[in-house]
Amino acid sequence: MASLDGEMTNIDVRANRDVIASLLAAHGLPSEIVVYVDNIQAWCREQRIEESNPWRSAKTLYHDGTHGVTVLLPNVITGDMVQSVTGGMLCRGFPHWRELEQDGSLFLKHLVLHEVRHVLERHHDENLCDTWAYEQLGAKSS
Ligand SMILES: [Zn+2]
């Protein structure tokens, strides 16, 4: 699946560590909760954690260790991974999926904020997380 605009460029997540850290800090979370991995599914398999999605772009794990939570992020997010996320948004009726799909920087910030919401609320309502994350983006740019 290629977008109408041609090949989607990869998002270099690790290169945006500072942006990610400041988004976390704005919500009182330490940057140490993020673990960058090459591939989330492969990492989970090594840890014997179930993960069925090979294109997973982020995953929040709750545990009894330091900080009580870990947010897994991939070092690089490919176009296929972006479309896996935005395809899910489309299925759930989240209206801003295309805007996020077309802007890698916005996509990454929204992705991180989505996980921030999971961390803060410990619920698994994807639409609530998406809507809240999108509101945070708006609050920053206006
Ligand atoms: Zn989620």
What is the fold's blueprint, element by element?
Elements: E1 11-12, H1 17-25, E2 34-37, H2 40-46, E3 59-62, E4 69-74, E5 76-77, H3 79-92, H4 97-101, H5 104-121, H6 126-141
Parallel strand pairs: 2-4
Antiparallel strand pairs: 1-5, 3-4
The protein binds zinc ion.
Walk me through what this model shows.
The protein has helices spanning 17-25, 40-46, 79-92, 97-101, 104-121, 126-141, and strands at residues 11-12, 34-37, 59-62, 69-74, 76-77. It has one domain (10-141). With 142 residues, the protein is of the alpha+beta class. The protein has 6 helices and 5 strands. Strand 3 (59-62) and strand 4 (69-74) form a beta hairpin. It has a 3-stranded mixed beta sheet with strand order 2-4-3, covered by helices on one side. The protein has a two-stranded antiparallel ribbon with strand order 1-5. Bound molecules: zinc ion. Zinc ion is lined by residues 114, 118, 126, 129.
